[in-house]
Amino acid sequence: MYRVLIIAVVVALNFIAIHLYQDSVEKLLVVLRNRNNTLRKSRDENQRQKKQLQAHGDKLAKDVEERTAELHRANESKSIFIVELGNEISSPLNAIIDISRQLSASASGGHITPQQLQVIQSNSDQLQQLMRNVRQLSELEEGGQGPLKLAPFELRAWVEHAVGFYSVSAKSHQITILKEIDNRFPDTIVTDRDVLGDVVHHVLSSAVKFTEARKIVRVRCFMNAGKLFIQVCDQSTGFAMDKIGSLFRPFDQADRELCRRFGGSGFGLAVAKRKFNC
Prior knowledge:
Blueprint: H1 2-104, H2 114-143, E1 151-153, H3 155-172, E2 176-181, E3 189-191, H4 193-209, E4 216-224, E5 227-233, H5 256-262, H6 268-277
Parallel strand pairs: 2-4
Antiparallel strand pairs: 1-3, 4-5
Helix pairs in contact: 1-2, 2-6, 3-4, 4-6
């Protein structure tokens, strides 16, 4: 009887022990499963971050490569520009020096002809404008041109005078400048005379410079949708579309062969764009 009772108690205790052990095992499995999920998420996150770092590193490497190439192109452009600027300065300077030597020669008697005077004036103006462009671009690169100086400006009369001024040099190269001023175009506006004048001057100068003989440069002044427009259209050889951006970058020119043919330092349009954006 006691033996049977003891066996029953032992069996019951074993059953309880097995049940408790089973619960412990199940809880342990749950913990291990949760840890496994956590490790899997951590691994996935590490892989994701690794891919992001790789992509970021590749982008940085590409940016460094592009920036290095850009700096190389900029340095190359500046070197070429310095050579071309030297040529641009030497041409009018040599003309002035040559006439000075002629005047200093005893055979000339120190007398200057109207043609020689015109050459001196023309080349001096060219040098002065070149130095002015260099100074303006330097000032704009350093921090802009300061606040606009707004005042009444007789724009219509100024445009007519500018067209007349460039028509003289254009005529000598067999280039015709046509002027079209709409009746609604105002006589006077409030603006910064120097900024607007410089912008139009540089654009018109470039248009005349790069237009071939027996071609036309057209200056149109009109109003549209309440806005004032001064449009300069030329009949130059033109540039490829992918070169347009370089027209407005200093130390760079869209077509160097064309610029060597017609002259020019590449400063004018760069100055005009910066003044227009200020």
